[in-house]
Amino acid sequence: MALTGSCMCGGITYTVEADTYLSALCHCTDCQKFLTPLFHTGATKNYDVVGNSGKINKHFFCPTCGSGLYTELEVMPDNTVIKAGTLDGGEANLKGKIDVEFYVKDRPTYLAAVEGAKQEPMFG
């Protein structure tokens, strides 16, 4: 299945082939600050941080509008984490299902656990 998406200003667009995917919410402090094989048009910028695993997390964003687009995790080299809010055609609703929530230990107190989602205190 092909998924398409873009940043807020439309300067970055992408298409990704994804037969299956895991829908997840991450509540780690990096994702809280960052919120908002991949092919795209336009030049992204990236910001690298060291995750709790000791491995590098590369966060990619649009240099014009700042929209967070995707993350590449050194701990998961064969996968790309796409920011769901950038998906086109209603796909950002993730088919109404979240499979897992990561870093629930850092989840803001005003957010409730997603019913039916596996609750993980950290990643992995």
From TrEMBL:
Ranges for domain CENP-V/GFA: 3-104
Gene Ontology molecular function terms on file: carbon-sulfur lyase activity; metal ion binding
PROSITE patterns named in the record: CENP_V_GFA
Recorded superkingdom: Eukaryota
InterPro entries assigned: CENP-V/GFA, Mss4-like_sf
Pfam families referenced in this protein's UniProt entry, alphabetically: GFA
Keywords noted in UniProt: Lyase, Metal-binding, Zinc
Protein family per UniProt: Belongs to the Gfa family.
Protein name per Swiss-Prot or TrEMBL: Pc20g03260 protein
Lineage start: Eukaryota, Fungi, Dikarya, Ascomycota, Pezizomycotina
